[in-house]
Specification:
Blueprint (H helix, E strand, L loop, with lengths): L1 E2 L8 E4 L2 E11 L7 E8 L5 E7 L3 E4 L2 E12 L2 E6 L5 E5 L14 E7 L5 E5 L3 E9 L12 E6 L4 E5 L7 E5 L4 E6 L2
Antiparallel strand pairs: 1-6, 2-3, 2-6, 3-4, 4-5, 7-8, 7-10, 8-9, 10-11, 12-13, 12-15, 13-14, 15-16
Pfam families: EFP, EFP_N, Elong-fact-P_C
GO biological process, one term: peptide biosynthetic process
GO molecular function, one term: translation elongation factor activity
């Protein structure tokens, strides 16, 4: 058993007959009244995100998990196929178990969180950022740079990301997987 002070991003807990992964949290200590922790929980079975507030010292049931490195092979409809880098065994997961499947390209190495009680995969954690090639975007118009103007661009995985005007087709860009936002252009 853990308490609300042990809450951190990525922690898997058992809550209302389901297993949830904490994707956001904020410790709040108001001037008046007791402290509490405001959280955003994502169900590892359905992918549904809920908001919940735990009072300070509240007991939570954490789920013991292991992490393993897996390589993304391909997706087939709602299923995504991965291979364990150590023993080459393969697993398939539903799209709901993935945080940002639209930013994952074939060959990407991800961390799969596995429940130690029944060896079932719970969720997939992407690396902090990915480098993808821009496949389609409108050309930037000269003189449109008074402010930090952006334009939509489609990357090689099919995801759409807002990028600065100087980005062109064929450029490789680094994308923050947490927020799905452009970080910088990558030189080869």
């Amino acid at each position: 058993m853990a308490t609300s002070s042990d809450i951190r991003k990525g922690l898997c807990i058992r809550y209302s007959n389901d297993i949830y992964k904490i994707i956001e949290f904020l410790h709040v200590k108001p001037g008046k009244g007791p402290a509490f922790v405001r959280t955003k929980l994502k169900s590892v079975t359905t992918g549904k995100v809920i908001d919940n507030t735990f009072s300070a010292g509240h007991k939570i049931e954490d789920v013991r998990v292991e992490t393993h490195k897996f390589q993304f092979l391909y997706n087939e409809g709602e299923f995504y196929h991965f291979m364990n880098n150590e023993d080459y065994s393969q697993i398939r997961l539903l799209k709901e178990a993935l945080d940002t499947p639209e930013l994952m390209k074939e060959g990407e190495v991800v961390t799969v969180i596995i429940n130690t009680e029944d060896n079932m995969p719970l969720s997939v954690e992407m690396p902090p950022h990915v480098v993808l090639e821009v496949t389609a975007t409108e050309p930037g118009v000269k003189g449109n740079t008074a402010t930090n103007a952006t334009k939509p661009a489609v990357v090689e995985t099919g995801a759409e990301v807002n990028v600065p005007l100087f980005i062109n087709e064929g450029d490789k860009i680094r994308i923050d997987t947490d927020k799905g936002q452009y970080q910088e252009r990558v030189k080869e």
